């Protein structure tokens, strides 16, 4: 019945991708049925993308019970796969992948007035529910206005109405000319289909951003060459013992908060294969601040509809209990936040089949006969491919400049870099260290290899960056403030203390120093370089490289593979302004 309503298999024959939008996901019955048919059909498209709107999500056990009651036992395995990835009930875009990414489910959760305009997808068919089909007034006009924008080809858009009627093609666009202005997101969604043998990309930069992009492309069957300067790469994160992957919240759930939520969720899903020694969920406390810009953290949560499994307010006693150390204030607790060994994570991602790494200092890129040539400092072409992604942090600006592709009005032209360092404190100085990330003004991470990473400093205008006594002092003072242990500030005071007079101990404290590439507004740049074909960037990750890396990878690799994007359009419109 569902299959016939969608005009299948005829409508997906000879297609590499087929994307369906369902107006209301409900309990997911259509998704399970379509997925099951896709598995059986010899003429199926290579990849099936199911996009659906849902005002909210039921809990996973409820979904399981309802779906099992309505489906035959043969598909219960699919139900289980869906339930295993089922997200928490949070507004935004949730991406679930099945069948090694050949089947994707994109759930847009929230009120339809918000989710429909912010869908970033190009769809072939729409499956309507009764409720939407019979709608009058604003809901009907919202759909009318949205369909031409969402259709991959408006003349061929297949509309399956709830009463069994089928309409092909949608009304011409009612958008005003102002709404029709060129959007980079639109350009990303309408990439020409890339033949299998053309799926070859070069990624410049093997840091956190480059590894995320290379991994996402390789998972989609791309051949990826990753180029980096070996000694610089080892400097980039060698000694960066541990880092934090934490979401953030703001009272109005602004773009940065939504992006951090999307990024954290993507990282949890995409990196779920990584060993617990490299990435482990330890949770994070964000303590109330006692100086500077004080925010009422309990009040921040009041207007938000976020589940307790994602974030909750905890008292001082509860926070101490969670951290396993006496703390002197409460704050927000994010149970799914994680600690990561950056260098080992990068290594693990770059070992994905399909990725080759080479030691090259890239000077510039240039387009020759439809291929991007990647040229080193000696002027030699070291790689070429139809797609190049510059993920070289602050170096991206110089690369674009040297390639004569840097528009002076572009966000990347205004990128700058900020130095900083972490300090490694022997765990015995912190009674074994906290069990979770403790943050606020700075952070203290749980012990790893007997050391707790404390961070981090922000150094403006530096030409070179290295660990310093000043940096250590600053970090110790952050740890002292967070843990309510003023004596920690004294540990390193000019030769008077035990630590400062003990050279070995002082050396151990010197942790790691590195750079952050920062764009105006502290939002990353993820997308194509305007008015070029095949040149992309993933840069400007500031202090949130771990939160944004896997999402950046999925956005670029997803666009190149014709997928719906795993992020709302309004956020995409900001970050894709490169
Ligand atoms: C002290 C400190 C603490 C931090 N803590 C955290 C934390 O807890 N959590 C978090 O999420 N983030 C943290 N960050 C931020 C995080 O490190 C960055 O966001 C992240 O490294 C950005 O990733 P990237 O790949 O863009 O840059 P990098 O990881 O710096 O990688 C860029 C790579 O590009 C290469 N490259 C550059 N130019 C060229 C070229 N011309 N040719 C070839 N290769 C090139 C470089 O060699 C380098 O390997 C911290 C940063 C600092 C400084």
Description:
The chain is of the alpha/beta class. It is built from 20 helices and 27 strands. It has an eight-stranded mixed β-sheet. The chain starts with a helix and ends with a helix. The mean pLDDT is 91. Residues 204-210, 227-229, 232-233, 236, 243-244, 361-362, 391-393, 395, 399, 420-422, 455-456, 514-517, 539, 541-547 line the site of flavin-adenine dinucleotide (FAD). Flavin-adenine dinucleotide is lined by residues 204-210, 227-229, 232-233, 236, 243-244, 361-362, 391-393, 395, 399, 420-422, 455-456, 514-517, 539, 541-547.
Number of domains: 3
Q: Numbering strands along the chain, what is their spatial order in the largest sheet?
A: 13-14-12-22-23-24-21-25
Biggest sheet layout: 8 strands, mixed
By DSSP, the count of extended strands is 27
Mean pLDDT across residues? 91
DSSP summary: helix tally: 20
Q: Which structural class fits the helix and strand makeup?
A: alpha/beta
Amino-to-carboxy terminus distance: 45 Å
Instruction: List low-pLDDT spans.
Output: none
- The Rg value, from CA coordinates, equals 25 Å
Multimeric organization: single chain
Query: What molecules are bound to this protein?
Result: flavin-adenine dinucleotide
Question: What is the CATH top level name of the largest domain?
Answer: Alpha Beta
Instruction: Briefly note the CATH topology name of the largest domain.
Output: Rossmann fold
Helix content class? 25-40%
């Amino acid at each position: 019945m569902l299959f016939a309503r969608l005009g299948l298999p005829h409508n997906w024959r000879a297609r590499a991708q087929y994307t369906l939008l369902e107006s209301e996901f409900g309990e997911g019955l259509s998704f399970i049925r379509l997925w099951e048919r896709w598995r059986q059909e010899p003429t199926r498209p290579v990849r099936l993308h199911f996009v659906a709107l849902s005002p909210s999500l039921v809990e996973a056990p409820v979904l399981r019970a309802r779906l099992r009651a309505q489906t035959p036992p043969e598909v219960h395995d699919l139900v289980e796969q869906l339930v295993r990835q089922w997200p928490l009930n949070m507004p935004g875009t949730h991406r679930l992948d099945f069948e090694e990414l050949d089947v994707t489910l994109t759930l847009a959760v929230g009120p339809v007035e918000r989710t429909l305009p912010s869908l970033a997808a190009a769809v072939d068919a729409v499956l309507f529910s009764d409720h939407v089909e019979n709608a009058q007034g604003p809901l009907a006009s919202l759909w009318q206005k949205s369909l031409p924008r969402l259709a991959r080809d408006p003349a061929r858009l297949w509309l399956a109405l709830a009463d069994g009627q089928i309409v092909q093609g949608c009304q011409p666009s009612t958008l005003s000319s102002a709404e029709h202005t060129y959007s980079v997101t639109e350009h990303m969604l309408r990439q020409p289909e890339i033949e299998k043998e053309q799926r070859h990309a070069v990624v410049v930069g093997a840091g956190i951003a480059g590894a995320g992009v290379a991994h996402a492309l390789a998972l989609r069957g791309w051949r990826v060459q990753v180029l980096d300067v070996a000694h610089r790469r080892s400097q980039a994160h060698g000694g960066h013992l541990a880092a934090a992957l934490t979401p953030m919240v703001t009272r109005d759930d602004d773009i940065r908060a939504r992006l951090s939520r999307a990024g954290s969720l993507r990282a949890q899903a995409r990196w779920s294969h990584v060993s617990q020694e490299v990435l482990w969920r330890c949770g994070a406390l964000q303590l109330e601040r006692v100086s500077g810009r004080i925010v009422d953290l309990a009040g921040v949560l009041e207007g938000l509809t976020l589940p307790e499994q994602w974030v909750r307010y905890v008292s001082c006693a509860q926070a101490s209990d969670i951290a396993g150390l006496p703390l002197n204030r409460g704050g927000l607790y994010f149970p799914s936040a994680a600690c990561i060994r950056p260098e080992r994570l990068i290594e693990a991602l770059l070992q994905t089949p399909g990725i080759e790494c080479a030691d090259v200092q890239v000077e510039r890129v240039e387009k020759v006969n439809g291929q991007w040539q990647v040229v080193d400092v000696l002027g030699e072409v070291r790689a070429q491919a139809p797609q190049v992604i510059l993920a070289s942090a602050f170096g991206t600006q110089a690369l674009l400049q040297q390639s004569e592709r840097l528009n002076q009005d572009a966000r990347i032209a205004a990128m700058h870099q900020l130095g900083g360092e972490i300090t490694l404190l022997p765990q015995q100085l912190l009674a074994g260290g906290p069990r979770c990330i403790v943050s606020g003004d700075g952070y203290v991470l749980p012990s790893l290899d007997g050391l707790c990473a404390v961070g981090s400093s922000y150094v403006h205008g530096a030409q070179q960056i290295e660990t310093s006594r000043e940096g250590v002092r600053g970090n110790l003072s952050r740890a002292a403030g967070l843990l309510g242990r003023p004596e920690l500030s004294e540990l390193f005071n000019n030769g008077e203390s035990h630590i400062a007079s003990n050279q070995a101990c002082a050396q151990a404290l010197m942790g790691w120093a590195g750079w952050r590439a920062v764009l105006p507004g502290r939002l990353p740049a993820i997308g194509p370089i305007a008015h070029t074909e095949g040149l992309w960037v993933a840069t400007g990750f500031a202090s949130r490289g771990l939160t944004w890396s896997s999402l950046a990878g999925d956005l670029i690799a997803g666009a190149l593979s014709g997928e719906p994007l795993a992020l709302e359009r309004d956020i995409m419109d900001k970050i894709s302004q490169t």
